[in-house]
Amino acid sequence: MRCEVLAIGTELLLGQIVDTNGAWIGEQFAASGIDSYEHRVIGDNQARIVAALRDLFSRSDAVLVCGGLGPTQDDLTRDAIAELMGVPLVRHDDLAEQIARMFRARVRDMPQNNLRQADVPEGGAAIPNPIGTAPGLMCEIAGGKIVYAVPGVPYEMQQMVTDHVIPDLLRRSGEAAAIVSTSLKTWGTSESGLAEMIAHRLEALDEQGNPTIAFLARGIEGLVVRITAKGATESEARALVELEEKELRLILGDLVFGVDDETMEYAVLERLRGHGWTLGVAESLTGGLIGARIVNVPGASDTFRGTIGSYATDVKRSLLGVTAASVVSEDAAREMAEGAQRVLGADVGIAATGVAGPTEQDGVAVGTVYFGLALPGRPTEVVGTRLPGDRERLRQFSSISLLNLLRQRLDGLEA
Amino acid sequence: MRCEVLAIGTELLLGQIVDTNGAWIGEQFAASGIDSYEHRVIGDNQARIVAALRDLFSRSDAVLVCGGLGPTQDDLTRDAIAELMGVPLVRHDDLAEQIARMFRARVRDMPQNNLRQADVPEGGAAIPNPIGTAPGLMCEIAGGKIVYAVPGVPYEMQQMVTDHVIPDLLRRSGEAAAIVSTSLKTWGTSESGLAEMIAHRLEALDEQGNPTIAFLARGIEGLVVRITAKGATESEARALVELEEKELRLILGDLVFGVDDETMEYAVLERLRGHGWTLGVAESLTGGLIGARIVNVPGASDTFRGTIGSYATDVKRSLLGVTAASVVSEDAAREMAEGAQRVLGADVGIAATGVAGPTEQDGVAVGTVYFGLALPGRPTEVVGTRLPGDRERLRQFSSISLLNLLRQRLDGLEA
What does the pLDDT profile of chain A (415 residues) look like in tens digits? Predict the structure, then answer.
């Protein structure tokens, strides 16, 4: 099955918004075995939208249109699809009532324009929008081809594509009814390293064709190994995914820090909760970034005591009790981790000190970083490393490296 | 003048990379008065690239191709342009020598494939690449139309577009030779609010046509007002920009926190340096984010002492000396700001405490935030507010709000 993507919006062409929808849709399509040969962005101009649709349908059986479903005169996707089909727009009373109800619930007056969102090209169907006012569209055009339209708002678009567009495309392709996927989130090795480790699984799956494995790069956040299976039923597909997940976890071991939407900081807090331990952080080059990551996890307050961003040297000494001659050293990292434990009243103290640049500090080269880990009932551990990248990247890399080290140590204790 | 954009790369279609180039190019084109009716993404397939170019040239006089200039067999932009022109590729010895030199400088062996990057369609010209191995291309095709090709690597692309593509497009359009623009970065009002304030300037400029003003949204980072002027010479264009900048600054006053690439934290540190003051921060709901923003500024260490991310209530008490009954209150914000001053040995102490959710805390509603500002020789000030948004947005908004408050107070002192 193949489906092209057409984004509508002059603001996209003018660069006022970065289009992240295209990448998201591309990833979802790929995971579902749907090909896409072209993504296109067009401004708010009905003639150009219709021309683009005609051109795309000359080569493809399906097109997904994103955006242009709002209530204003600039929103022309509905009109363009009706023109393409050669039919009028028909107002759907049930949609109009839903839109009016949504405005009443928000205690806001509804501009009459908003009722345009209840218009559907004759013969087409609406895709329900549980979270916004603009319904989507699903319209067959001549020759059994299909055009979908979804809002440009990412979370509304994502829900419609996941719940309606992809299942409909798969039905049309005569493919299996259910697709299930799980993402194993890994940290600490390269894509080629991962590929080498699981080469025999990739080969075996290539032969059997289902499930499939894809690698997705997440930059500083690591690499995702996504397992996707098709099945006649959801439970059949899920069983295939779970079987393969077991195989891969055996091979990948503690490179895997979580699944799906789980972040590294979530993984760390979960493991700390398992031990009933609280966490305190001492930061230097990261300036507070490690703390900021941790409080991204809802409910962090039961485990996270706080962070001390001791940027100035004498703050490390007065507040954390660092006595080491150089504040970028193994000794300083150890004293900072223990200082975080003591000063923040935490069971576990972790610390990062290093040189983020732009120039070396006290003869220590840019990129040198020391991590300290103070866990209850164990001698404090220090790991030194030399990280690549610019100032910003060094700090991001230091933060996730330290969190990953702590995760691995906590997993080691459980074993 | 009009120029369409064609991005090449199967990895873009698969969503493995988010295409930020399109937005950047759109913004630059708009600032230079170059129209773009269409952005298109195509995979690494020569026939499809040629077909897309033919289609785009059926409606436009210029196309900018991004990507597909690498050394591998997948990189087909050069071949596609040669096919479009109906000419062979010709190896340019000077380019080959440059590429070989770049490899020698990095003490790396050069794969023979890399010499493909020295190939140019007969009759075309190379665009020099001072920072990478892949030169760009600038080739006239039939009918005086022009195709440019630049690498997909953002900073290489940006340099070529700025230095070569846009100047060439403007020359071809017979437009003024020089374009100068300045971006005034503002924080604290809406786009409609800004538009209302400068409505009479917008009208006046609409009539005279040069310079022009554009608004660019930067989300939590505020709104940018960009002034762009054309002139026969750069100094003529610059004079027009400077004149308008003066007018706008009179109207916008302290909404403007910086120009061009200056961030809010840069603005704050600059003003602190002017007073010879150091800064200490006490954070609660932001968990270290304010400190992390500040250390983004190279050279922050001369001014920034550190941050105390006091997430747990008893850490606020033991470390910062907070005695207020509720840790989300005016009194707590005051005590935290003064605690940051004292504990971090800083001239200026600032603090943010609030409820980020997901649930209310001690009867205080989600979104309630108090900011404390302790400046030398003044009573400590507290500002309370109620911010909108989810957990992440609340924290981002709190961080920049507090930095902006400090900037305004420091500006007030100078007046």
Answer: 899 999 999 889 988 788 899 999 998 998 888 889 999 999 999 999 999 999 999 999 999 999 999 888 889 999 999 999 999 999 999 999 988 888 887 767 777 788 889 999 999 999 998 887 789 999 999 889 999 999 998 989 999 999 999 999 988 988 656 778 899 999 998 877 888 899 999 899 888 888 988 887 777 899 889 898 888 888 999 999 999 999 999 999 999 999 998 999 999 999 999 999 999 999 999 999 999 999 999 999 999 999 999 999 999 999 999 999 999 999 999 999 999 999 999 999 999 999 998 888 888 999 999 999 999 999 999 999 998 878 888 999 999 999 999 999 999 885 5
Query: Per the CB < 8 Å rule, is A288 touching B307?
Result: yes
DSSP A6-17: EEE-HHHHTTSS
A410: nearest Cα among A369, A373, A371, A372: A373
Start-to-end Cα distance in chain B: 46
**SS3 of B281, please?**
strand
CA distance B254 to chain A (A): 24
* Angle (CA) A235 A213 A63, round 5°: 80
* Count, residues in chain A: 415
A366-to-A177, A283, A311, B219 alpha-carbon distances in Å = 54, 17, 16, 32
Cβ atoms < 10 Å from Cβ of A134 = 29
> Distance between CA atoms of B152 and B136, rounded to whole angstroms?
10
> Hey, of B3, B28, B39, B301, which one would you mutate to test binding to chain A, going by the most A CBs within 10 A of its CB?
B39
Place of tokens 């549980």: A130
Nearest to A15 among B26, B314, B357 (CB): B26
Residues in a beta bridge with B147 = B63, B139
Of B55, B308, B311, Cβ closest to residue A55: B55
Which residues share a beta bridge with A32? none
Instruction: Give the A:B interface size as CB pairs under 8 Å.
Output: 236
Cα B415 to Cα A303: distance, rounded to the nearest angstrom: 46
DSSP secondary structure string for all residues of B42-105:
E-S-HHHHHHHHHHHHTT-SEEEEES--SSSTT--HHHHHHHHHT--EEE-HHHHHHHHHHHHH
Q: What is the CA radius of gyration of chain B?
A: 27
Predicted ipTM of the assembly: 0.81
Structure tokens at B279: 């800064």
User: Which of B13, B23, B278 lies at the smallest CB-CB distance from A26?
Assistant: B13
Which residue type sits at A367?
G
Q: Do A289 and B292 touch (CB under 8 A)?
A: yes
Q: Where are the beta strands (DSSP E) in A246-336?
A: 256-259, 279-283, 304-310
pTM, two decimal places: 0.82
Choose the mutation target among B44, B157, B290, B307 for the interface with A, i.e. most A CBs under 10 Å: B307
From CA B15, how far away is CA A317, in angstroms rounded? 47
Q: Which long-range contacts (CB under 8 A, 24 or more apart) does B114-119 make?
A: B114/B71, B115/B91, B116/B71, B116/B75, B116/B78, B117/B69, B117/B70, B117/B71, B118/B91, B118/B92, B118/B93, B119/B78, B119/B89, B119/B90, B119/B91, B119/B92
Q: How far apart are the two ends of chain A, measured CA to CA in Å?
A: 46
């996927």: which residue's tokens? A181
Q: How, if at all, do strands B178-186 and B223-231 pair?
A: antiparallel
Q: Is the dihedral of CA B274, B278, B284, B285 positive or negative?
A: positive
Rg for chain A, CA atoms, rounded = 27
